[in-house]
Every structure is written in C-alpha cells, then in structure tokens.
Design a protein that fits this description.
Elements lengths: L3 E2 L8 E11 L5 E11 L8 E4 L8 E4 L2 E2 L3 E4 L2 E5 L4 E10 L9 E5 L2 E5 L19 E10 L5 E4 L2 E7 L4 E12 L6 E4 L1 E9 L5 E9 L13 H18 L7 E7 L6 E2 L4 E5 L12 H16 L8 E2 L5 H19 L2 H20 L11 E2 L8 H18 L1 H15 L3 E2 L1 H12 L8 H4 L5 E9 L2 E9 L14 E8 L10 E5 L3 E7 L6 E4 L8 E4 L3 H10 L3 H20 L5 H20 L5 H8 L4 H6 L6 H18 L1 H12 L7 H20 L1 H14 L3 H12 L4 H14 L3 H12 L6 H8 L10 H12 L2 H4 L5 H13 L4 H5 L3 H4 L6 H15 L6 H11 L1
Bound molecules: (3S)-3-amino-4-(1H-indol-3-yl)butanoic acid and zinc ion.
(3S)-3-amino-4-(1H-indol-3-yl)butanoic acid binds next to β20 and α2.
C-alpha cells in the first residue's frame, strides 16, 4: 500500500461549508443522498476538479447544480468530478448494506440498531466526500425509517424537526451549527431507551443529557440502571472542564449511545458520542472498581474532546496527538482530581511502561507525531495517546500549572474553529506560558524512550548528580539529538529521613552535572519524582537506598518506584545468573522486609498499599533486558512471589482478614480494602495454593461486588484445585446473559496462570459464546492471551500459532481489529533466538496470506522490517 507522508500535506482545493445528508434507513439497505455545497478554497492551488473519497461505494446518481452530469470518473475507490466554476452544488446518491459491514467502520448494524464510526476514514464508506479532517462543514441531516425498528433517530447537534410519514415510517432532522470534519459525523437509529438528566453550564445554558442503551428484549436484562455512574461521570466532567480549563459545553443536547459492537473504546462525535458498552455500563454487581474508573475516565475523555478535538481539530492525521495526547492528559488530570492522585499517576505510568515503552523499543516505534503511514488506523497507539500526554505533561511541569493554563487558553482562543497542528499547540504554550520550547519540539519528532544514566557523587559537603541521556535508534531514525528532560529530584538526609525540598532539573544535553551543597553525609537520591519525564532511569542505587525510599519517600510515586526498582534489580540479577543462592536469599529477604513494612505502615491507605504490593509486570522486567527469555523471567518472578508469600504468610492472611471486615461501598476505604484483599490472595496462591484456594473460594461466595468475585476467580483460575471448575461454572451460569461479564469469564481463563491455559483458550475459541464479529469478545480471549506470558510464549510456539491463526481468520472480517493483534508477535527481536524464530515464522505466514488488508499488511511488514 502507498505511503502517505506528513511533508506532502496540501490544503484541499475546495471548501465544503455546508453538507446536507438524507438517509433512508434499512438494516440491509440504506440509501444516502448527499448535497455538498462547495466553493474554491482561496488558500489552495486553483483546480477544475474535485476528488471525493469513497470506499466500496458506487454512485447511483451524480448531479452538479441540480443537473445530472457525466463529467465524473472513478479513480480507484474515489470519485473525481469536473467543476468548471468557483462554487457548485454536488448531488450524490449511494446505497449501502449496514448489516454486511463487519468492519464496524462507516454505517453498520449492531444488535438491530444502526450506528456509525467515522474516525478516521469511515465517512467515505457512507458517501463520497473529501474525507479529511481539515475540511469543515455545517451538517444538516434528515433520516427516515421504519418507526418500529428505529423509534429513536439521532445525529449530531440539535433536533430541529420530526414527523410521521403515516406509512409505518417516520423521520427526524438534525442540525449541527458547529462546522466539523467528516470524522465527527454520527448517526444512530434503533430501539433505544434513555437515562435523561440536565446540566446547566456556568453561563446558564441548560443542556439536556441522555445516555441511550438498547431496549431490553424479552428475557434480557435492562441496562438502563447501569448507566447511572456514566451519567454522574459526565456531569462531573462538564463541571471540571469549566473549572480547570475554562471550557464550557456549546450545544443544548449531549447524547451518548452505548453499542456492543465497537472497534475502540468510544467516539467523540459532536454532540453524539458513541460508546462501547464496556465504558458506559457499570454497577457493583457486574463491574469491578477498575471498570468504574474506566467508565469515568472514558466518559471524561470523550467529553473533553468537545474542545480538544472538536472545536479545535486536526489539520491532518499526522497531528493526531494534538487531540489525543492532550485529551488523555486532560482525562488523567480529571481522574487524579476525582480519586487518589498518586494512585492514578502510578496506574498511568504502569500503562505507559506496559504498552508504550515496548512500542518505542520495537519495530513499530514512531514519534508522537508520525512522519508517514499507510493505514492511519494503525497509529491510534500508546505512543500517540499516552506518550503524547506525557509530552504535554512535561510542558506543564516546566511551566507550572498557572502558566500552562494560560498557554492552553491561548491555544483555544487562537485556534477555535480551526484544523490545527501540533506545532500550533507548542507555539501557543510557548507564547501563553512564556516558555522556550525550541529544543523541546524534538519530543514530537524523535521516537524512542530516552535512557537517562544517573550517578550521585559525594565529596566534602557537596552532592553532585551526574546525568547522561541517550535516545536510542528507532526504525528510520538512526541518530538522535538530546532532548530536554525535566526531572524532579530530592536528596534525603539518611539520618533524619527528610529532604530540604524538591527541585526541578532539566537535563538538556547529552551529559550534565548538577551540584547540591550542604550534605555532610552522602544523601539518598530520589529522582524522576512523580514521573516527570517518560524516560527510563538507569541508576545503580544501593539496595539500602531503595529500601529507605520504599519506606520513607514523601512522594508516593517515588516510593512505588523504589519498590519496583528493588524487585526489578533483583530479578534481573537472578535471571542473568549473577547471584549465588545466598545472595538470592538475601535479595528476597530485603524485598520481604520492604513488603512487610508496606503491609504494616499505618500511614498508607489501602489503595496505595495495593499499588506498592504489585510486582513489576513481566513486560516491564523484559523491557529492562536487551534480549528476554520469557520462560525464565516468568519462572523467576513466580518463584520470588512464592518466596515472599511464604515469608509473609501470616501478614498476608491478616491483611486479608482485616480488609474483609471493611464495610462495602464505592468509597476509597472500601475500594482499597478490596484491592489489598485480592493482592493478598495473589501472593498466597503462589506460596500456599491450598490455603489460597480455600480463601479465594470463600471470598467468591461472600462477594457482594464484582471486584471481590472477579478477584477471587482470577486467583482460582490459576490454581489446579476443584474450586477452579466449580467457581468458573458458577460464574458463567450466574452471568451468561450479560455479555460484558461473559467477556470477563473468557478473559479470566485466557490470562490465567494455569499450566493448561493454552488448551483452555483453544477450547474457548469453539465455545458457542465466542464470536469473531464482536471485538470485545475477541479481545477478551486473544488480547488477554497474548498478554499472558506463560501461555503465549509456550516453548513449542503454539501460542504464536494460535495468535497468527486468529489474525488470518479475523482480517477479512474486521481488519482494524485484526491488525491490533500483530504487535505481540512483532516483539520477536527482543526475545531469545529460539522463540524469536518461531514468532518471525508466524509473521511470515501471515504476510503470505492472500488478500491481506492494508491494516494488517502494514503492521506485519513493519514487524518483519
Ligand atoms: N477518537 C476516537 C478514536 C476512535 C477510533 C480510531 C480508529 C478506529 C476506531 C475508532 N473508534 C474511535 C476515540 C478517542 O480517542 O477518543
Ligand atoms: Zn481520544
């Protein structure tokens, strides 16, 4: 497939200030009539032709200024039309079959309803149009359809008229006053019911809010009560954006629709967000505390896009991080404010390290503002989203909150109603916050996670911090320049356990030293506090320093980090065979001591305690090694867990008992208690499986929340005792009518530590509830499986084969989703040679499959490099 390059950007030759769409809806046959009002773009090179993107469409009628014309031709999938004058009206009619649209891009059918997904390039599957984000139009939409099948008819903006045709069909008209690109268009029609509420903005606009779900059929559960948390989250988001960013909602209606077949999490269509049910529906019986947080975060994210994405959109798809990185930062800050800020920060860093760091060190590495792509859907990545957020967070750290806000205000003022670039954003922050971001712009251009090497010297009463940075080579970028890296540091006096204040140092050269006078003895260094920079720190800190920080650092993130470092450092040494048996035992004892202190510390809340108990993930440990042996890492990580559990069995049992007595609810104390309860079981399962089985079964039976029940079942799913089968069966029978909970049931088995997990996954793929057409279900089985190191990296390569088979089967059904399964195989270069060869062979097998989609072909091609 052709490569699209950022440097080739040209403005489109035509403006389309107005667009009228008329839909005659049917599940298998929808007729779309589009009227485009076009005029020459004075900012572009004059042209007598217009090229309208299409995908899989045939025009049934083409008119110009109301007259049929033959002055058009197909150029591939696109329609090219001669336009002699400076302004015209183009009429186009197309027909589509939503029920046959298994790609879930464009207009498709899901559970009897019709809905759209247009980002990035789905609109061209509905009608011919300049399907690019810099063409902004005012949309008027009319739709008509069977009143029984589609009683609710929704689109962007405000409902302006509706009526009955008297023949069993009815119609509605929607008008969106805000110019928008085609990717923000949405239409939904179906048998829906709504949870309604209102919100009054700070300037007094009364906004009608509605969250729609599919009407329950006979014998089905009613989802409406499960939307209460989403509604409360929406209202909190609206208030927060006014207070923290000065951004107010700008329409009289805000609608959300939940659909169960969806390629991603949700979509920020103007005034009509479409959501994966997974990020709308939550109650304590069926959703975990983590699910509640995810709903709140995604609701906020999509709502915040109304400004960072919709009012100011992207000039082209290379600028995706302009809206996504910024909006992720906004949703992270929101969630920090809604709950425990340190815990949220730790969770966000865990996601970054688990998903983005591996991307940055592998064949798919790209800058947050990519330079080229073949299929844009492949660039909705952790790099564009999560590293993009970290890059903007660094600007905020350097500017301070107030000046950063001034920069954001300037950005929104300057670019409201425009399709902007990342450069526009940086310039606005530079001007509004009064920062020099000249060198900082490299963060947009260079891929790869910088490695910062740290050494602390002490002489006389001066401590000197020596820092050096290397930005590693990545595909297409062999040589890198040093970037500004803002690091918050503190130096602790060993005896008193306090520090003289946190300081921000900005490392902006390859090597730099910073001196701190006033230390009679060598202090303990705490660096990258709060994770101010998305870098990996290489610091051979003495174990006693890490133990000190794990117990006493006043920055909760740094405390967590010290705990992680302690474990990662130890496991690296064990895996590399560097430790004698007694050294290994001494290392384990040091970690056990630190864990015991964490369990006993009365100053910690349980949410934070739970974080400190979580061992570094296998992916993160593997990331620290040039070449990883997944089998050995898994074995040693589990062995360490077992040793810790045996050393602290009494503590873990007591912790579980204490937490079990905490009253329920959604407050922080109850949530924290649930978190440490399951953490305790996770340890005990490795140290004393029989005891863990009995305790987990009891927790399962006593559970009054999904958090407790799922936590217990997760532990049981990895054990071999009889309770595993009993409780898995019970869980399925209890929840078989709730698809989101059945997804959990698939996921628990696919991610389990059970030695036969691979066979379980194979069996589940033939289960009557498995469905290749439903992305949630496919992800619940295979994404979880690919993240299960013991099973996926099975020595004989069976895990790799299974994933490749899935990709080959899924690609013709849903290429966007299929392509998302390629990266786990793409990590082969960082895996020991025997497994690497097996992984590579599977990639080659996929590459050789005839008719591979552009999505999958690009990912496989880049992975084979
Ligand atoms: N902006 C939305 C991205 C999205 C998407 C991308 C590719 C394919 C399907 C998709 N559905 C939604 C979601 C967001 O980041 O807010
Ligand atoms: Zn987004």
């Amino acid at each position: 497939p052709a490569v699209i390059r950022r440097v080739d950007y040209q403005p489109f030759g035509w403006l389309v200030p107005r667009l009228e769409l008329d839909f005659q809806l049917g599940l298998t046959d929808t007729r779309v009539a589009a009227t485009l009002h076009v005029e020459r773009n004075p900012a572009a090179t004059p042209t007598g032709q217009i090229r309208l993107n299409g995908e899989g469409l045939a025009p049934l009628e083409v008119t110009v200024d109301g007259q049929p014309t033959s002055l058009w031709r197909m150029a591939g999938d696109d329609l090219v039309l001669d336009l002699p004058g400076t302004a015209h009206t183009i009429g186009l009619v197309t027909r589509i079959d939503p029920a046959a649209n298994t790609q879930l891009s464009g207009l498709y059918a899901s559970g009897g309803m019709l809905c759209t997904q247009c980002e990035a390039e789905g609109f061209r599957r509905i009608t011919f149009f300049p399907d690019r984000p810099d063409v902004l139009s005012i949309y008027s939409v009319r739709m008509s359809g069977d009143a029984d099948a589609f009683p609710v008819l929704l689109s962007n903006g405000n409902l302006t008229a509706r009526g009955d045709n008297g023949d069993g069909t009815h119609w509605a008209e929607w008008h969106d006053p805000w110019p928008k690109p085609s990717y923000l268009f949405a239409l939904v029609a179906g048998r829906l019911v709504a949870n309604r509420d209102t919100f009054t903005t700070r300037s007094g606009r009364k906004v009608d809010l509605a969250i729609y779900v599919r009407e329950a059929g006979a014998g089905e559960e009613d989802d409406l009560p499960r939307t209460a948390h989403a509604m409360a989250s929406l209202k909190r988001s609206m208030t927060w954006d006014e207070e923290q960013f000065g951004r107010e909602y700008d329409l009289d209606t805000f609608n959300i629709v939940a659909v169960s077949d969806f390629n991603a999490g949700a979509m920020e269509n103007k005034g009509l967000n479409v959501f994966n049910t997974k990020y709308v529906l939550a109650d304590e019986e069926t959703a975990t505390d983590g699910d509640f947080d995810a709903v709140e975060g995604v609701i906020a994210h999509e709502y915040f896009h109304n400004w960072s994405g919709n009012r100011v959109t992207c000039r082209d798809w290379f600028q995706l991080s302009l809206k996504e990185g910024f909006t992720v930062l906004r949703d992270q800050l929101f969630s920090q404010d809604m709950g425990s800020a340190p815990v949220k920060r730790i969770e966000d860093v865990r996601v970054l390290r688990g998903a983005q760091f591996p991307e940055d060190s592998g064949p798919l590495a790209h800058p947050i503002r990519p330079d080229e792509y073949r299929e844009i859907s492949n660039f909705y990545t952790a790099t564009v989203y999560n590293k993009g957020a970290e890059v903007i967070r660094m600007m905020r750290v350097m500017a301070g909150e107030e000046r950063f806000r001034a920069g954001c205000d300037l950005y929104f003022d300057r670019h409201d109603g425009e399709a902007a670039t990342c450069e526009d954003f940086v310039k606005a922050i530079e001007d509004g916050a009064g920062l020099d971001l000249n060198q900082f712009r490299l963060w947009y251009a260079q891929a790869g996670t910088p490695r910062v090497t740290v050494r602390l010297d002490h002489a006389g009463d001066v401590a000197t911090l020596h820092l050096a940075q290397v930005v590693p080579p990545t595909p297409g970028q062999p040589d890198k320049r040093p970037m500004p890296i803002p690091l918050k540091v503190a130096l602790f006096d060993r005896a008193s356990g306090i520090h003289a204040g946190e300081q921000l140092v900005v490392l902006d050269r390859a090597q730099q030293s910073f001196s701190f006078p006033g230390f009679a003895t060598r202090p303990v260094l705490s660096i990258n506090r709060g994770f101010t920079a998305p870098v990996s720190i290489e610091h051979a800190a003495p174990v006693e320093d890490l133990v000190f920080l794990a117990a006493r650092d006043d920055d909760p993130f740094a405390r967590y980090e010290a705990m992680q470092e302690l474990v990662v450092g130890h496991l690296k040494d064990v895996v590399d065979g560097k430790l004698s048996a007694s050294e290994r035992d001494a290392g384990r004892a040091a970690i056990a001591g630190a864990l015991a202190a964490v369990i006993a510390d009365p100053a910690l809340d349980d949410l934070m305690r739970g974080e400190l108990l979580i061992l570094p993930s296998q992916t993160y440990i593997a990331e620290q090694m040039l070449i990883a042996d997944p089998g050995t890492i898994h074995h040693e990580r589990q062995a360490l867990r077992g040793a810790l559990a045996r050393a602290l069995e009494g503590e873990f049992v007591a912790l579980h008992q204490r937490a079990s007595a905490v009253p329920g609810g959604l407050n922080a104390a109850a949530r924290g208690a649930r978190k440490v309860k399951t953490q305790a079981l996770v340890y005990l399962a490795e140290g004393n499986p029989d005891l863990a089985e009995q305790m987990a079964a009891a927790q399962y039976d006593a559970a009054d929340t999904m958090t407790d029940r799922q936590g217990a079942l997760m532990v049981l799913a990895g054990l071999k005792g009889p309770q595993r089968t009993h409780k898995l069966l019970d869980f399925y029978q209890r929840y078989r009518s709730n698809p989101l909970v059945v997804d959990k049931w698939f996921g628990l088995q696919a991610g389990s530590l059970h030695p036969h997990a691979i066979e379980h996954v194979k069996a589940l793929a033939t289960h009557p509830d498995f469905n290749l057409k439903n992305p949630n279900r496919v992800r619940s089985l295979y994404m979880v499986f690919a993240a299960n190191p013991a099973a996926f990296h099975a020595e004989d390569g069976e895990g790799y084969r299974m994933l490749a088979d899935l990709i080959i089967a899924l690609d013709p059904v849903n290429p966007q989703t299929a392509a998302r399964f390629v990266p786990p195989l793409g990590r082969w270069r960082r895996i020991e040679p025997r497994r690497a060869a097996l992984m590579r062979a599977e990639l080659e097998r996929i590459a050789a499959t005839p008719g591979l989609s552009r999505d999958t072909a690009e990912q496989v091609g880049r992975s084979l490099g």
